[in-house]
Amino acid sequence: MADRRLAIAAWESLFRAQHEVFEDVSNDFVGGDLSQAEYDVLLTVTRAPDMTARLRDVTANMLISQPSVSRLVDRMVGRGLVTKCSDPDDGRGALVTATEDGARAFRSIAAAHGKSIAERMSCLDDDDLRTLLDITERLRAGSYRSVD
């Protein structure tokens, strides 16, 4: 294992950087038609074939609990941003589909939000970005193991 102090320092730096960057780009949603959570739902749904994703796939991409995602999706149904129906292939599941209004609202924010992210990340060159992507993917794929 790497030096424990170095690992802790790197973790704290990663955590603080993520928090600060997230706070900066969250400003893209202030006063907009979508909340950041609604945008995240629509990001998953609009990228899926026919703009339709299983609710469990939406939940897997969110950083909130399954019941919270379900309530959020139900509110979005009420706002006309998505539809929700039973999954014909799995009656226990649900399918979420972006409506035209939902897709339009997503697209209207996506371009500006992408620009905001790119500007915030512009302090890194392409090699840095590839390295960061590789490191974060390895962290996400790694399994936890106890360190004595």
From TrEMBL:
UniProt entry tagged with the keyword Transcription regulation: yes
Domain of life (superkingdom): Bacteria
Pfam family membership, one: MarR_2
Gene3D superfamilies attached to this UniProt entry: Winged helix-like DNA-binding domain superfamily/Winged helix DNA-binding domain
Record's keyword terms, sorted: DNA-binding, Transcription, Transcription regulation
Residue ranges annotated for the HTH marR-type domain, each copy included: 1-141
SMART domains: HTH_MARR
GO function term, MF aspect, one: DNA binding
Cited InterPro entries: HTH_MarR-typ (IPR000835), MarR/SlyA-like (IPR039422), Tscrpt_reg_MarR-type_CS (IPR023187), WH-like_DNA-bd_sf (IPR036388), WH_DNA-bd_sf (IPR036390)
One GO BP annotation of this record: response to stress
Entries under PANTHER family matching the protein: TRANSCRIPTIONAL REGULATOR, MARR FAMILY, TRANSCRIPTIONAL REGULATORY PROTEIN
The name this protein goes by in its record: HTH marR-type domain-containing protein
Species the sequence originates in: Microbacterium barkeri
